[in-house]
Specification:
Belongs to the LptD family. Keywords: Cell outer membrane, Membrane, Signal. This is LPS-assembly protein LptD. The chain is mainly beta. The chain is built from four helices and 46 strands. The chain has a 30-stranded antiparallel sheet that branches. Strands 1, 2, 3, 4, 5, 6, 7, 8, 9, 10, 11 and 12 form a twelve-stranded antiparallel sheet that branches. It has a two-stranded antiparallel ribbon with strand order 25-26.
């Protein structure tokens, strides 16, 4: 461990100035109390507060001698030399050639711009290539101001340190790693590199996992050319054997590409939980490639493609970049030119997890994930006004292929909800919008809006299978084949912002009213809904012309949106902002009350003729407190249907935040219980360099803490220590709470030595009951 840490000292071991090439005509500026020249020895002697500036170097000493015949410079008495890069060298005396190629220094101390420090009894430079430090000490810790002789928090001592600028290496002999002045590790010889790119062994790392055992990772970096390199990391696990992880990288003038391959033959595949995605597997492999290229200043293309032999290999072994619960493979082509935008993407989704095989297990979840080949977005905004207004065009093409239907929970009526059907579908959508804002002398703003949209579908999907307890009405409407859909909209927005000014505050109040006239949405249940499933009605979409989140649904019928927007500022630094409003279905079919395969819009607050009220409020106080909230209220009883409240506070020693979230039952979405939870986090600096932190989430309905974390941090200018403990609990469901539910817990620790590296220790997914 200590050898790996100490090896990195080379990257910061600043040395005496390298051989310099001085431009012709460079002037030397010298000032001193006394200056003399000996014609016999051809020696210039400056004494008394000597200061010399030459080619970016600055030298200060009590006495400086320069011999014109030998080209040697000798400085003595509180010598200080500042390099052009900001490195400061202090010495008792200095004897170097005028090009800094050879020389001697006694009583040396070096302070670098990176705030690292080197002390040596002496140093010698040879041939402008090698610098040898004798009895050297290196640290990134700041010396104690009250007691400079006290040992720093950590340091590396070596009898001899040889820095070779040509070979770009540092060799240490008889080196010791000290903590609090006490030796904790020794290595007789070590050679490390100072180059940014040089072949060799990189810093090892340690780890622990319950199913994998203790681990040691040793990466080897190989430079293949000025434009390419590779890293081979071999990790040994006490329970599972050896993992090989290879990454290749290649840079081009207009981009880069890379490949990654990892694999292991597991020694003990039954160490994992029985029935999990990891259990019983021997050979496990992963392959990935990524690239990004600029075709020209406007166009860019790239990809990131991933494949693994099972559902959880990348996550179990924490393969960098491929260890999340969902890994997205994609390829893209993007172009931007002023107000015009084009984007082509292809997607594939891999689900990772260790859950046991079941109807909702990872394997089934992954099978229900679609291939998106491709999705194309195009947007263009007219450069010149059209009839005095702005004309914009948006288009989207989406092709989806799925091998297994994605059916979720049933709603309160027993109707199944389908997030996707088995088969394939293709949709092409295009929309034109024109709008123009007219400002009147009295401050009234009127914005007429015209829009026309068309959709073409080619549907080849299996009919959804009804659940045993009920039939989704949309199932009867669903149809295969080529289908078309159109929507035209005429709208008008009116707003009247006015300013109210008081002695110590100013306020802007803006009433807003919108009216959109359009025909009904065409048979929403007869079309698949892939990209418009997520829907939350709040003030962020209150004034949207089409409130659905994607192209697969389109809002129809005549609707009015009414509300007021407010901002206020006070001389004492307090600021306020808020929005409150409501929406009305004036005529036609309410799209949010029309069933589709996922019941998008139902129980949203918009599925009635008169919508729920929505409001938001933000408060910012100059003392470091910020409050924000979103809420939806029942249109008749004013009961809370959805609430999100967030409060934060921060000062020099304390930062904290608390969030409250509440959601009323949504029976048609399959949620029959109220959901309420409170999340809090805090970090407190209770002493110099010491902090504690934690966070927790309390489920009000389930009456328990669903997850929590607590940690302790020590942090100074050269060292950070972080240790934490976290838990995740299965609380069951309201009405069926678990008194002894499964608890997943993990502990971890990180030791970070600035300029040297990190040591990480941890365990994850350790299960107790």
């Amino acid at each position: 461990m200590v050898c790996g840490l100490a090896g990195s000292v080379a990257t910061n071991a600043q040395q005496l100035p390298s051989t310099t090439s001085v431009p012709p005509g460079t002037q030397l500026l010298l000032s001193s109390k006394k200056l003399s020249y000996n014609e016999n020895t051809h020696t210039v002697v400056a004494s008394g507060q000597v200061q010399i500036a030459y080619d970016g170097y600055r030298l200060v000493a009590n006495r400086v001698e320069y011999n014109q015949d030998t080209g040697r410079v000798r400085a003595a008495g509180e010598v200080a030399l500042v390099n052009p890069d900001g490195t400061k060298l202090y010495a008792d005396n200095l004897d170097v050639t005028d090009n800094f190629a050879d020389g001697f220094v006694n009583g040396l101390r070096i302070d670098t711009p990176q705030k690292t420090h080197i002390v040596a009894t002496s140093a010698e430079r040879r041939g402008g290539v090698q610098t040898q430090f004798n009895n050297g000490v290196y640290t990134a810790c700041k010396p104690c101001e009250e007691n400079p002789d006290r040992a720093p928090f950590w340091q590396i001592r070596a009898r001899k340190i040889v820095q070779d600028s040509e070979a770009q290496t540092v060799r240490l002999r008889n080196a010791t790693f000290d903590l609090f002045g006490l030796p904790v590790g020794y290595f007789p010889y070590l050679s490390v590199t100072t180059a940014k790119r040089k072949s060799g062994i990189l810093r090892p790392s340690l780890g622990y996992d319950d199913a994998l055992g203790f681990s040691v990772s040793v990466p080897y970096f190989q430079v293949l050319s000025p434009y390419s390199d590779a890293t081979l990391t071999v990790t040994g696990y006490t329970k599972q054997g050896f993992l090989a992880d290879t990454e290749y990288r290649r840079r081009f003038r207009n981009g880069s590409l890379g490949f990654r391959a990892a694999g292991i033959g597991q020694f003990s595949p039954k160490e994992f939980e029985t029935g999990s995605a990891d259990y019983g597997k021997t050979g496990r492999f992963l392959f990935a490639t990524q690239g990004s290229f600029d075709i020209n200043p406007r166009w860019k293309t790239g990809w990131n493609v991933f494949y693994e032999t099972d559902e959880n290999f990348g996550r179990t072994y924490a393969i960098p970049g491929y260890n999340s619960s969902t890994v997205t493979s994609q390829a893209y082509l993007t172009g931007i030119d002023g107000k015009n935008y084009f984007d082509l993407h292809a997607y594939r989704f891999d689900e990772q997890g260790s859950e046991k095989s079941s109807e909702i297990g990872v394997k089934n979840l992954e099978k229900s994930q679609p291939f998106v080949l491709p999705v194309i977005d195009y947007s263009r905004v007219s450069d010149e006004p059209v009839f005095g207004g702005q004309l914009s065009f948006n288009a989207n093409e989406t092709s989806i292929y799925r091998s297994q239907a994605a059916r979720t929970n049933t709603n309160d009526d027993g109707f199944s909800r389908y997030r996707g059907l088995e088969g394939n579908t293709h949709r092409l959508s295009g929309e034109l919008e024109w709008k123009r804002t007219q400002t009147f002398d009295n401050g009234l703003l009127l914005t007429p809006i015209l829009a026309a949209r068309g959709d073409a579908f080619d549907i080849n999907m299996d009919d959804p299978t009804p659940s045993t307890s009920g039939v989704n009405p949309a199932i009867d409407e669903f149809e295969d084949g080529t289908r078309f859909r159109t929507m035209v909209t005429a709208g008008l927005e009116a707003s009247y912002p006015f300013v109210a000014t008081a002695a110590h505050s100013s306020h802007v109040i803006e009433p807003i009213a919108q009216l959109f006239v359009r025909p009904n949405e065409d048979d929403p249940g007869s079309f698949p809904n892939e990209d418009a499933q997520s829907f939350v009605f709040d003030t962020t979409n209150l004034f949207d012309r089409d409130k659905f989140s994607g192209y697969d649904r389109v809002e129809g019928g005549t609707r009015a949106n009414v509300g007021v927007r407010y901002t206020g500022s006070f001389d004492n630094g307090v600021t306020l902002d808020g929005v409150f409003g409501q929406s009305y279905q004036i005529a036609g079919q309410n799209s949010f009350d029309s069933p589709d395969l996922v019941y998008a819009g139902h129980d949203s607050g918009l599925d009635h003729t008169v919508s729920d009220y929505v409001g938001s409020l933000g408060v910012s106080l100059p003392v470091g407190i910020d409050l924000s909230s979103q809420a939806r209220f029942d249109n008749s009883s004013f009961a809370l249907q959805r609430t999100d409240v967030n409060a934060t506070y921060a000062n020099r020693i304390l930062s904290t935040g608390i969030t409250y979230a509440q959601l009323a039952p949504q029976p048609e979405y399959g949620s029959t219980n109220t959901a309420q939870e409170v999340s809090a986090n805090a970090r407190l600096k209770f002493a110099q360099n010491w902090s504690v932190y934690g966070k927790a989430t309390y489920d009000i309905e389930r009456k328990g803490v669903s997850n929590d974390l607590a940690g302790l941090i020590f942090n100074n200018e050269c060292f950070t220590f972080n240790i934490f403990y976290k838990e995740t609990r299965d609380l069951g469901q309201p009405g069926n709470l678990l008194d002894d539910g499964e608890t997943d817990w993990s502990v971890g620790a990180t030791l970070s030595f600035r300029t040297l590296g990190d040591i990480k220790l941890g365990s994850e997914d350790l299960t107790t009951n």
